[in-house]
Design brief:
The protein is mostly helical. It contains seven helices and no strands.
């Protein structure tokens, strides 16, 4: 998360892919997938971000609100508008609301 906040997505990829400090099960957990997808989005690779999130979106509704929001934003950027609308509506259906009002503009 800190590397992303500093705007360094390539270091996130290096840490996740090359250091091998985390076991595969940890890399496949939703928090790590979110970090990887956020890094891809920050690197403007929205296709990779969406592909990284898709297993959580179809895995029986266990995806978090943030995963759905990021997926919706990624689909919007790659012009898959139907999927973007579905993902963004799902993210808005969670009980907790977003702090950032920009999400409601899309």
């Amino acid at each position: 998360e800190k590397l992303l906040s500093f705007g360094l997505p390539s270091l996130v990829f290096t840490f996740l892919d090359q250091t091998e400090t985390l076991p595969k099960a940890s890399l496949d957990s939703e928090p790590m997938v979110l970090i990887d997808a956020k890094a891809s989005a920050l690197d403007r690779d929205f296709t990779a971000a969406a592909q990284r999130l898709e297993p959580f979106l179809v895995a029986g509704g266990g995806a978090s609100r943030e995963a759905w929001r990021l997926a919706g934003e990624s689909y919007l950027q790659i012009q898959e508008f139907d999927r973007a609308l579905q993902a963004l509506q799902t993210s808005l259906s969670f009980e907790n609301k977003f702090d950032d009002p920009a999400i409601y503009i899309h």
